[in-house]
Design brief:
Length: 389
């Protein structure tokens, strides 16, 4: 966590180079729903300046706290910023300060307590992490098997939320079909810590990071794969910084690994006559730079008609499920998701795919709420469906 002086310096530099041009406002999913200037990224910079830099600093208000937490951390404002301001880093630092002031949303405080108790974001004991595997008929999981080539880090959402269980089922089915020597961690897998980082509680992540890295290293695997975009971003971008060392195994998103298996013919997709579009998860695409492999998988499925949405790749719109927004304002999160789902329908696609369990879950709920003629699936689910066909 930055000291107050370091944070002041960051805000001073940001406010100096920010020209208040409004480009960030035009792409911010939260501003487009709320419409108030105070919800725009440039206004958050101005609010932070009022709190930290005025000769007579203003007290941080409840509205200030609310606006800082009404953000999906999608990074699109940084992507569009002509001045090159790293807004995402600034929002995270300001959330750290907000928590230190005791002004974080009570739902986020409760989440931190929950994670300390169960090591996951659900109310279930961590021993239930493999309950999703009970419906697997032909796949027998190896748990914490030393000497495996690959470890599969399932993530909290796919472990505990039934709407996302199909993702983890598809990934292990694909690994099994390709004869990959893999293992899962079971109850030894703890939350990656991304929800804590997003809420400004990076200190609590240290214990989670140390545990997870230690358990994976003990297996002697060559690679760790995960189907969760936020888990992937945390393992690749946060853990080396938190631990102050490089990981001695490769970390891949599941789409990267599956694309490899397709290239080596270990997986050969069958024909699937569907019209499909793809939603770039913020933490996989814009925040981690992975755009091609999910599309490579879709284009490898014969018979599939792949159509792009207008907002895609580095300028893709957020699903509304990032940054803990649903815990702060569920209706706002859902409104953003509905807008994205409607954009998918407008392409003529009947299936919307993504490569993030949170995106899939959020967009599924939006499609159901609006009764849209749209099936929402993870890319790995669609790949497994093509192999089943």
């Amino acid at each position: 966590m930055k000291t107050i002086e370091e944070l002041r310096e960051q805000i001073a530099k940001t406010s100096y180079i920010c020209g208040s041009c409004g480009s960030c406002r035009s792409v911010c999913p939260v501003y487009r729903e709320i419409g108030w200037e105070s919800s725009a990224p440039r206004a958050k910079v101005a609010l932070a300046k009022e709190v930290f830099l005025k000769k007579k600093e203003k007290k941080a208000t409840n509205q200030y706290a609310q606006r800082l937490q009404e953000c999906t951390l999608c990074g699109k404002c940084a992507e569009i910023c002509a001045a090159g301001i790293n807004t995402r880093e600034l929002w995270l630092n300001l959330r750290e300060d907000l928590r230190a002031r005791g002004m974080e949303h009570p739902n986020l405080t409760q989440m931190a307590v929950q994670l300390k108790t169960t090591h996951n974001i659900s109310a279930f004991p961590n021993e239930a992490r493999l309950d999703w595997a009970e419906d697997l008929d032909d796949v027998e999981l190896e748990v914490s098997k030393v000497g495996s080539e690959v470890a599969y880090f399932v993530g909290c959402v796919s472990s505990f939320y039934p709407m996302s269980a199909g993702i983890s089922e598809s990934i292990v089915s694909l690994l099994d079909r390709a004869n990959v020597n893999y293992t899962v961690l079971g109850s030894e897998e703890w939350c990656c810590g991304f929800p804590l980082i997003a809420s400004g509680n990076s200190q609590q992540v240290i214990e989670l990071a140390k545990h997870n890295v230690e358990k994976v290293r003990a297996l002697g695997v060559k690679a760790l794969i995960t189907g969760c975009a936020s888990c992937y971003h945390t393992w690749t971008h946060e853990y080396p910084t938190i631990l102050g060392e490089d990981l001695d195994f490769e970390v891949l998103h599941a789409t990267q690994y599956m694309a490899r298996l397709i290239r080596t013919k270990q997986l050969v997709p069958s024909n699937l006559e569907e019209t499909v579009t793809y939603h770039d998860p913020c933490d996989l695409g814009r925040n981690s730079g992975i755009y091609d492999e999910p599309r490579e998988i879709l284009q490898a499925i014969e018979g599939l008609s792949f159509v792009e949405m207008p907002h895609r790749r580095d300028l893709a719109d957020c699903c509304g499920g990032g940054g803990n927004l649903a815990a702060v304002d569920k209706d706002l999160s859902q409104a953003i998701a509905v807008k994205r789902a409607r954009e998918a329908v407008a392409t003529g696609a009947t299936i919307l795919t993504s490569a993030c369990q949170q995106c899939v879950q959020t967009l599924q709920m939006a499609a159901r709420q609006e009764k849209l003629p749209l099936e929402v699936l993870d890319v790995t689910e669609l790949l497994w469906r093509s192999l089943e066909e």
